[in-house]
């Protein structure tokens, strides 16, 4: 009986029996009252027969009392109290009961007291004569037959209650199995089947329960299975991509290392333009080599912890802006910087460069894709608790899908053809600093991202 349906069966039987007990008590009390009323009626008929005959023999009187089931009858008519029929009383009268206007509680109390008292007693019963045949009728009688009749009636009530409770419990048991247990078992079976092969969409449950709560459970399970399978597939794709990127990054690092050797030679050139551009080219290749090394580390575990140091924000922002200006070509895009010249922050230099480069590059690509002129503005400020950097553009704003899955890989892509990894990587790098990358606003007038780097204990 450890099953839900088994316990439901037991509880149903118990509750039905409790209900029958609550019915049993007043039923037995009503039966006792009817029994006494019938004795009063029989005694009244016997007394009227005696009054009609004026005089009867002692044998006939005894027979009338025997048929009425009483010892004597007192009838009050016209304010005169008259002993109509009488016979010897075996024992003194133990109690008197008035049935003319009793309350329900009194009837129940007297009935339970009679059932609890096994000994024969002589009682007096007072009632109103039927059909206005007097003012009052009073009888004395033995309680033995009354108690036996009450016990017999009670047993029949209990047996009927047991049958009713059994039938009701079985019907409710079958109904519970059909409408509750079976749908729940179906949900459990679906969960077990899905656990064995979560990538198989055929294991998804199809909601069909007629009970609203069970149907909601099935719909919730179906949604959970769909989302979990999608997450597992995405995780698998990420793992495959990570392996592929790690291989590419390994070979690319070797190529960039060779390119780095060639750029060292360029620094020896006497051409002024080459001398001016060579350091930036060297810095770009150096950053690319570091990025490849970081990608290899990410493929093994996760983004490496930042190496914090103090530096001027403008040092890396200038490289980011200069690099993006070279990528603009003929597009009409302007750049604005509002960064205090002496603003010094504490962060990982290369990781913050990657964050700013991703944000500015996304802004540039969004403006170019719109086919209109635009501006990219980078501003920074220092508060008592943090450094705050804003990257704003006048592009067309992020599409709804990008806003919904902003920092999720492969889903939060802001431009056509993008992988949606730039913002994901940037957000992770900023979180590594204990900070936060948030979307402040986006719309037809442009988009603004905010980088918040907490100062903490900077010493």
UniProtKB/TrEMBL annotation:
Residues 214-241 form a coiled coil. Residues 247-457 form the Histidine kinase domain. Pfam families: HATPase_c, HisKA. InterPro entries: HATPase_C_sf, HATPase_dom, His_kinase_dom, HisK_dim/P_dom, HisK_dim/P_sf, Sig_transdc_His_kin-like_C. GO terms for molecular function: ATP binding; phosphorelay sensor kinase activity. Keywords: ATP-binding, Coiled coil, Kinase, Membrane, Nucleotide-binding, Phosphoprotein, Transferase, Transmembrane, Transmembrane helix, Two-component regulatory system. It is an enzyme of class 2 (transferase). The keyword Kinase applies. The chain crosses the membrane at residues 6-29, 157-180. This is histidine kinase.
């Amino acid at each position: 009986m450890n099953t839900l349906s088994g316990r439901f069966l037991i509880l149903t039987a118990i509750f039905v029996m409790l209900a029958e007990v609550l019915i049993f008590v007043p039923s037995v009390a009503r039966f006792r009252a009817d029994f006494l009323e019938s004795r009063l009626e029989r005694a009244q008929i016997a007394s009227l027969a005696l009054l009609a005959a004026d005089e009867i023999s002692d044998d006939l009187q005894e027979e009338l009392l025997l048929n009425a089931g009483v010892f004597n009858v007192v009838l009050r008519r016209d304010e005169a109290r008259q002993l109509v029929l009488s016979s010897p009383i075996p024992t003194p009268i133990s109690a008197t009961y008035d049935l003319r206007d009793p309350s329900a509680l009194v009837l129940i109390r007297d009935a339970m007291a009679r059932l609890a008292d096994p000994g024969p007693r002589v009682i007096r019963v007072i009632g109103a004569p039927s059909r206005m045949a007097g003012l009052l009728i009073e009888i004395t009688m033995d309680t033995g037959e009354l108690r036996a009749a009450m016990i017999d009636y009670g047993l029949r009530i209990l047996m009927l209650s047991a049958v009713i409770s059994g039938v009701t419990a079985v019907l409710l048991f079958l109904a519970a199995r059909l409408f509750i247990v079976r749908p729940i078992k179906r949900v459990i079976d679906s969960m077990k089947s899905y656990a064995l092969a979560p990538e198989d969409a055929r294991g998804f449950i199809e909601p069909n329960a007629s009970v609203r709560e069970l149907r909601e459970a099935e719909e919730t399970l179906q949604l959970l299975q769909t989302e979990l399978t999608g997450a597992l597939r995405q995780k698998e794709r990420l793992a495959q991509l990570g392996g592929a990127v790690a291989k590419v990054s390994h070979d690319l690092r070797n190529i960039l290392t060779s390119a780095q050797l060639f750029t060292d030679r360029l620094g020896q050139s006497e051409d002024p333009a080459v001398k001016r551009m060579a350091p930036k080219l060297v810095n770009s290749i150096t950053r690319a080599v570091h990025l490849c090394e970081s990608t290899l580390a990410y493929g093994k575990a996760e983004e490496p912890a930042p190496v914090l140091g103090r530096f001027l924000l403008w040092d890396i922002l200038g490289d980011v802006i200069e690099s993006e200006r070279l990528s603009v070509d003929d597009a009409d895009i302007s750049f604005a910087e509002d960064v205090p010249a002496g603003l010094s922050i504490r962060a990982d230099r290369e990781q913050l460069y990657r964050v700013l480069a991703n944000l500015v590059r996304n802004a540039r690509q969004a403006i170019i894709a719109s086919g209109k002129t635009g501006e990219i503005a980078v501003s920074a400020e220092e508060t008592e608790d943090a450094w705050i950097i804003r990257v704003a553009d006048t592009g067309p704003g992020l599409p709804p899908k990008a806003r919904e899955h902003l920092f999720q890989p492969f889903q939060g892509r802001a431009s056509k053809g993008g992988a949606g990894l730039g913002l994901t990587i940037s957000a992770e790098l900023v979180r590594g600093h204990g900070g936060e990358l948030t979307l402040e606003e986006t719309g037809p007038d442009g988009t603004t991202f905010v980088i918040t780097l907490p100062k903490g204990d900077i010493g």
